[in-house]
Write a structure and sequence with these properties.
Elements lengths: L8 E9 L5 H11 L3 E12 L4 E6 L2 H14 L4 E4 L5 H13 L5 E3 L17 H8 L5 E2 L3 H8 L6 H13 L5 E3 L8 E6 L4 E6 L10 H14 L4 H17 L17
Parallel strand pairs: 1-2, 1-4, 4-5, 5-6
Antiparallel strand pairs: 2-3, 7-8, 8-9
Helix pairs in contact: 1-7, 2-3, 3-4, 5-6, 7-8
Length: 264
Amino acid sequence: MAGITSIPRVMTIAGSDSGGGAGIQADLKTFAALGVYGTTVLTAITAQNTQEVTDVHEVPPEIVSAQIDAVLADIGSDAVKTGMLFSRPIIEAVVEQLGRHAVRNLVVDPVMIAKSGARLLRPDAVDSLLTCLLPLATVVTPNVPEAEVLAKMTIETSTDAERAARRIVKLGAKAVVLKGGHLAGPAVDRLYDGKTLREFSSPRVDTNSTHGTGCTFASAIAAGLAQELSLVEAVALAKNFVTGALRAAYPVGLGHGPLNHFFR
């Protein structure tokens, strides 16, 4: 893609978190911490803190398209990460532009529900996510509740998680990392690429500062891919980065605080 640079470039297409813990704010912190240049395409503005999302303003799809055009025509991108896309028209605009610019290394974080319970993807947009965006994905990174929607099944055990991962890849994504934070026991993330299932395990971190873990994880994978790591290496990098950021997190606000992206 376009652009003259000596530093890997990663573009995030996501919503803004006014509390700074998730969304494009978490993405940019992750990119900076991992040594890549981050660009942003804003899909929604959220009024949000560590406790709740109080309001959402959708960015018009034509402005989303214009942002993608502006970035890719000049700076280019070595990887793209999508987060909160919110609506069917925005997903369709993003899909059109990613195809037109022949984007590679696409990491899809299928953001649906905030930690506070607020809906960040409209119900009528789920089908567009499944049929239009997932087939473009290098890897999709759902948590258990998101994977249940994508795979159309209940996930309660490790066997369920493996079955769901296989179902999601059959939807068209080249690979899936099904995150295990919602399941009991150690935090085990499962990477399935259509052939091999790999597990990435770490002890569970006892902290209330977990806001933005999904955004950070997906952005770290994108940063790794932009630096020409293999998918397995990029997932391992992301797993270690999120674990370290959780361990070093400090209290902010009265709810779920953010990670410490600059723990290193």
